[in-house]
């Protein structure tokens, strides 16, 4: 079966090139050699902390950014040449933003916002637009009278439902959810997560769920990819990742999440920082924080290594 | 509608609007008024004084009726000024939007051109344009419009740049819109208010500039009258017949003054920053208006004791009751967690303790906050200042916003030390470095010379904590100090706080929305909902067997690591708005146990001081 989404060696470099006098300009490698594959109807959780490149990756996947290198195929259709042109991607893959309010134009009514993809991507006439919007609002459990209101009149949770409705309007096959609940309160967070789960089932959607919150990712994902400093360091089925993490960074992430009833994790007492993206280290980016670090780690970037059929990690000394 | 009301509330703007309306009305009615031909010369009756027979405002040097010339001239000047403003606004805004939206090379090219245009003194530029095009009113109009294009272009470009990177523009792109569709439907409606503001504040200026060119003889050509040319003709007779120049002069003054007054009113009404009252300076301490001060309760051990604290925000005639009667106590060395969702009043509670809520609109309407027995709410400014950053220190969520971006972090710490006690500069610096070491910043002596933006988020928050510790506080108030941090960094900072607390016997009030954090750090916890504490007790007891239905269901909402793939429980509905709280329990509308009794009357916080709950049917009790 063809996977819903297949990404090969995706790479994004900002800056670089040469100045007018021929001096090379500094370059930041935001995403390096990311390869992923998601099965239809499943959720791939993408976990990482700030600066790991997860938002850059997401923006490439929906076509908002052009890749520096690499290929992307959706349901077997190669779209690598059309990256940077979101209109070409819009009918297949859509994006749900982190901040629900600021992703809605304050001067447009909800109806106008929802109509945009129907007009520009699907070219629907007025009566079919009306029917489609009614259907969408039904799907995200919002009342019809909201359609003539403006975004500032909604709470975060409601605005995020509108954001989801907009993403679904053009009937895409894949949704990229970029921290869709991290701006919401916990009591509302669960409402939105459950809605997403229902929609996935009902519409046979495939999700890429990006988050920094390991517990949320575990609750929604079939498989998980862990990102650190622009690279995938571990990928596998969710159960395997959470029960037997191979990469020390995955271990650290899981150990750091504050959990009721667990003592404070005291894995790192000194303050540590990410490597400088303008001067990346020659070896493993995690080496400076890793408890198992050896000379090899500082010299050579570890390659992805398979542990079982669906579980890979990039580490010289895996658990 | 609301905009009109806002303008009307500003009396000067309303006055300007009425005057301008009258002038415009008269100018519109000129063709229908029974006045003589403005260009009809009558040398026999030249330079008649105002109020003389047959000429209300007198006549000019050719015997033309000044009233007729004034009215026709006003009409012409208004039309030319407004047309110039519209042309400048349309072209300038279009240039600004294109430059701001596309950015990069397009932007540099366009804006450097605009910069060159701005480098000429405007009057010289206008003269040059007229010189090329030849004198004439239409050419003067073009000149004034061109001279003002850069003003609009720069203004609008700035606004567009900030809009072009907003998420809703990305969303529009994902909806399949092309650049021009996005500019038309996403950017333009959002810059329109700025264009209107810019126009309303410059149109008066443009009328003046047109009059200036006419005055120099480059605008309207005789015999056609506009205000500038009338002034120019009157100037030669200033001594013998002053009325010939005073009449058009007064009219120019009236028009420009009324336009500017109205323009300022429009700007104030449309500018969201001014509307929110950002220009009003908050007082040094929150205003306190208490009916009575609660009696001092005996609790010798408590370092901080809060009784019945109430804080409101008054906006217009609505009162938003952010904190509605909060009581708690913290002993030395103890950590109290205050947990709640956004809008529950937890941060306002923390800020109210030392009168840090901005006033206006904030106001403390009841209760007492006693630190070592002294009520902070009745302290004067000097006593409060000694307490802030001295015995009591704050750590906020975003250290980038609380650290001064232009000073080295070491200097900021030295300042904080020397504000409170006399200490030599070098000694204070050494003390600051040793504190940075205590918060485990590697290479502290070197980092003390860094600016805030040179540090990562986790480092900055360590600096924020060190800054709070400079004067050996007894009480630390932490408002979501780890919320903006990554989990691995959060774990480091929490471990640091825990160690500091034990080493220094610090009392802490820890505000958060995260049960995991509370459980790892706090001895006791208070749960807030809609401005009140609904449950309080030892952390372990509250988390293991919550008594209030809200606490229980909120805990159930939090996904925990190790649970595998599953559906999560949610609480339906939303918290009530704090300007319209229901009678009785604020959680009743969302609670599945709520009865009639829950919806009326005040429900007290019942139980011992150690464990109390504000509920008529607490969990675990016999039904």
Concise account of the structure shown:
Chain A is built from ten helices and twelve strands. Chain A has helices at 54-61, 86-89, 110-120, 126-139, 156-169, 186-203, 214-220, 238-243, 248-256, 295-299, and strands spanning 5-15, 27-38, 43-47, 69-74, 77-78, 93-96, 174-178, 206-211, 223-228, 231-237, 305-308, 311-313. The mean pLDDT of chain A is 88.
Q: Please, could you describe this protein's structure?
A:
The complex is a heterodimer of chains A (319) and B (623). By secondary structure, chain A is of the alpha/beta class. Chain A has a domain at 5-82 and 211-313: Rossmann fold, CATH 3.40.50. In chain A, 30% of the residues lie in helices and 22% in strands. Chain A contains ten helices and twelve strands. Chain A has helices at 54-61, 86-89, 110-120, 126-139, 156-169, 186-203, 214-220, 238-243, 248-256, 295-299, and strands at 5-15, 27-38, 43-47, 69-74, 77-78, 93-96, 174-178, 206-211, 223-228, 231-237, 305-308, 311-313. In chain A, the strands form two sheets. In chain A, strands 6-7-8-3-9-10-12-11 form an eight-stranded mixed β-sheet, with helices on both faces. In chain A, strands 2-1-4-5 form a four-stranded antiparallel β-sheet, covered by helices on one side. In chain A, strand 9 and strand 10 (231-237) form a beta hairpin. In chain A, helix 3 runs parallel beside helix 5. The two termini of chain A are 32 Å apart. The model of chain A has no long low-confidence stretch (mean pLDDT 88). Chain B is an alpha/beta fold and 623 residues long. Among the domains of chain B are: 10-28 and 53-274, MetI-like (MetI-like fold); 286-333 and 343-380 and 523-560 and 569-618, P-loop containing nucleotide triphosphate hydrolases (Rossmann fold, 3-Layer(aba) Sandwich). Chain B is built from 22 helices and 13 strands. In chain B, the strands form two sheets. In chain B, strands 7-8-9-4-10-11-13-12 form an eight-stranded mixed β-sheet, sandwiched between helices. In chain B, strands 1, 2, 3, 5 and 6 form a five-stranded mixed β-sheet that branches. In chain B, helix 6 packs antiparallel against helix 8 (179-215). Chain B is elongated, with a radius of gyration of 34 Å. Classes of the chains: A alpha/beta (319), B alpha/beta (623). At the A-B interface, helix 2, helix 3, helix 5, helix 6 and helix 7 of A face helix 7, helix 8, helix 18, helix 19 and helix 20 of B.
